[in-house]
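User: Design a sequence. Structure:
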């Protein structure tokens, strides 16, 4: 281990250079916040996907193509 001699004013402090407690706490809070936001984002995305899949089981998917196909079928049956 390397030791550094730190001079503060007229005193000589001998010890290791390290992060302060405030810096460590700030980094820990930042990492925890990032992991929580990642978890919330992924769980929200998966729950929305599951809800959409359950909604599609009941009937036709209401998309632009599906609506256009319904319109074409209605106009075909009306013209006959």
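Assistant: Done.
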């Amino acid at each position: 281990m390397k030791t550094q001699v730190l001079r503060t004013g007229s005193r000589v402090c001998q010890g290791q250079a390290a992060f302060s407690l405030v810096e460590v706490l700030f980094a820990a809070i930042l990492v925890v916040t990032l992991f929580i936001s990642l978890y919330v984002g992924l769980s929200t995305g998966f729950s929305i996907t599951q809800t959409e899949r359950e909604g599609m089981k009941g009937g036709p998917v209401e998309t632009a193509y599906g609506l256009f196909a319904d319109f074409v079928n209605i106009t075909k049956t009306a013209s006959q």
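The chain has two helices and two strands. The mean pLDDT is 80.
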